[in-house]
From TrEMBL:
<protein>
    <submittedName>
        <fullName>Alpha-hydroxy-acid oxidizing protein</fullName>
    </submittedName>
</protein>
<dbReference type="InterPro" id="IPR012133">
    <property type="entry name" value="Alpha-hydoxy_acid_DH_FMN"/>
</dbReference>
<dbReference type="InterPro" id="IPR013785">
    <property type="entry name" value="Aldolase_TIM"/>
</dbReference>
<feature type="domain" description="FMN hydroxy acid dehydrogenase">
    <location>
        <begin position="3"/>
        <end position="369"/>
    </location>
</feature>
<keyword id="KW-0285">Flavoprotein</keyword>
<dbReference type="InterPro" id="IPR000262">
    <property type="entry name" value="FMN-dep_DH"/>
</dbReference>
<comment type="similarity">
    <text>Belongs to the FMN-dependent alpha-hydroxy acid dehydrogenase family.</text>
</comment>
<keyword id="KW-0288">FMN</keyword>
<dbReference type="Pfam" id="PF01070">
    <property type="entry name" value="FMN_dh"/>
</dbReference>
<dbReference type="InterPro" id="IPR037396">
    <property type="entry name" value="FMN_HAD"/>
</dbReference>
<keyword id="KW-0560">Oxidoreductase</keyword>
Length: 369
C-alpha cells in the first residue's frame, strides 16, 4: 500500500486508483450523484469558475493553516464529512479517519449509518468527533441515537435535513446497492472480478450499520424522513445542550431561521450533489448565506471540494471551516491508511501553496485572495 500511496498527488489520482481497486457497485455508491449527475457537474463548474488573485512581495514564509471551530483549534481548516458505510472502501476505514482526526484535532463527522459504533469512533478520535443525525420514521429512534451520542461524550450534533427522501442515484440502482449490504449473483460476479478488495472484506467480515443495535430500532435507508419539521428541530434543541449544527442548507432565509431558532451553526451543503440534481451549486449560495446570517455566525461548507485551492475558495466565499468527503474514501480504497495520510498531506500542501500565492499568512485574514 505504501507504493500505491506514492502515486497519489491529487484527489483525482486517489479516485483513479480507487476505481481500479473497488467493485463497480461500491465505487458507484461512493462516486455517484443524483439523476444524470448534472448537479455534480454544475457544482464542480462553479468551483472551477472561482479564481484566487495572486499577490506579490508579501512575507508569507510562515503560514498558519489552523482554524477555530467552536472554541477548539483545528490544525487544518478542513475536516472529515460524515459518510455512511465507510468500511466498504476498506476494512477499518472509520478508524483510520478517526486516527487522522485525532492527529490533526479536526472534526470527524460520524454518520448515523457508520460501520463502526459511534462510541469507538469518538474514543479513537480523542474526542474530535461530531455525530451526524438523520431523522427517520416517527423520530423515536432518532432521539434515542441523540441520547446515545450525548452519553458517549459527543459535544456537537449535526442534524442533516436535506434527505426528506433518499435521492435517486441511477448508478446505485443499476447495481442493486442496498443497506444493509446484500449479495446476489450480480454482486458476486462484481466481487469476483475485484479479488483484492473481496478477500480483505471477507477476512474482516461484512460491513454493518453499527449504530443500530438498540432494541426496537432497525434502520431502513429507504424509510421516509419527510416528517421532520421545525417542531422536530425545537425538540432536538431542547434536549441537546451541546453545539447543534444543521447540515444541508442552500437557502439564505432558511439559514436565518435556523440561527433564530438557536442553532449554533449551519453547514452549506448539497449532500455532495447526491439528493437533488437541480439544486444550485452550494459554493454560489455560500456568500448569500454569509451575508444573511452575519459575519460572526459559524458557517461550515461541504460538497464538491477536491483540493486545497477549493478550500481557500470556500473560505473566501464565507465559510469558517470546510469538510472533505468521498475523496478521503477514495484515498483509503487506493492505498489504505498510507493513502489517506498522503492525500491529507497533498491537500495541506495545496492550501499552503495557494495561501503563499495569494499573500496570506493566516486564514483569519480575509483581505486577500
Amino acid at each position: 500500500m505504501l507504493s500505491a500511496a506514492a502515486h497519489i498527488h491529487s484527489s483525482d489520482d486517489a479516485r483513479r486508483l480507487a476505481k481500479r481497486r473497488l467493485p463497480w457497485m461500491v465505487f458507484d455508491y461512493i462516486d455517484g450523484a443524483a439523476g444524470n449527475e448534472t448537479g455534480a457537474a454544475r457544482s464542480r463548474a462553479a468551483l472551477d469558475a472561482l479564481t484566487l488573485e495572486p499577490r506579490i512581495l508579501r512575507d508569507v514564509s510562515d503560514r498558519n493553516l489552523s482554524a477555530d471551530v467552536f472554541g477548539t483549534t483545528a490544525q487544518r481548516p478542513f475536516g472529515i464529512a460524515p459518510m455512511g458505510m465507510c468500511n466498504l472502501s476498506a476494512p477499518g476505514a472509520d478508524v483510520m479517519l478517526a486516527r487522522l482526526a485525532a492527529k490533526y484535532s479536526v472534526p470527524h463527522g460520524v454518520s448515523t449509518v457508520a460501520s463502526t459504533p459511534l462510541e469507538k469512533i469518538i474514543d479513537v478520535a480523542d474526542g474530535h468527533a461530531w455525530f451526524q443525525l438523520y431523522f427517520s420514521g416517527d423520530g423515536a429512534g432518532t432521539f434515542k441515537l441523540a441520547e446515545r451520542a450525548k452519553a458517549a461524550g459527543y459535544q456537537t450534533l449535526v442534524m442533516t435535513v436535506d434527505v426528506p427522501e433518499v435521492g435517486r442515484r441511477p448508478r446505485e440502482l443499476r447495481h442493486g446497492f442496498k443497506m444493509p449490504f446484500s449479495i446476489g449473483l450480480r454482486q458476486f460476479v462484481d466481487f469476483a472480478l475485484h479479488p483484492r478488495w473481496s478477500l480483505t472484506q471477507l477476512a474482516a467480515g461484512k460491513p454493518q450499520m453499527a449504530n443500530f443495535d438498540m432494541d426496537g430500532y432497525d434502520f431502513d435507508r429507504t424509510e421516509s424522513r419527510a416528517k421532520a419539521d421545525w417542531d422536530t428541530l425545537s425538540r432536538l434543541r431542547d434536549m441537546w445542550s451541546g453545539n447543534l449544527v444543521v447540515k444541508g442548507v442552500l437557502n439564505a432565509e432558511d439559514a436565518v431561521a435556523l440561527k433564530n431558532a438557536g442553532v449554533d451553526g449551519v453547514q452549506v451543503s448539497s449532500h455532495g450533489s447526491r439528493q437533488l440534481q437541480s439544486a444550485p451549486a452550494p459554493i454560489d449560495r455560500l456568500p448569500l448565506i454569509r451575508a444573511a446570517v452575519g459575519a460572526d455566525y459559524p458557517l461550515f461548507y461541504d460538497s464538491g471540494l477536491r483540493s486545497g485551492e477549493d478550500v481557500l475558495k470556500a473560505l473566501n466565499a464565507g465559510a469558517d471551516f470546510t469538510f472533505f468527503g468521498r475523496s478521503l474514501q477514495f484515498a483509503i480504497a487506493a492505498a489504505g491508511e498510507a493513502g489517506l495520510h498522503k492525500l491529507w498531506d497533498v491537500l495541506s500542501e495545496e492550501l499552503s501553496s495557494a495561501m503563499a500565492q495569494t499573500g496570506r499568512r493566516d486564514l483569519t485574514d480575509k483581505t486577500f485572495g
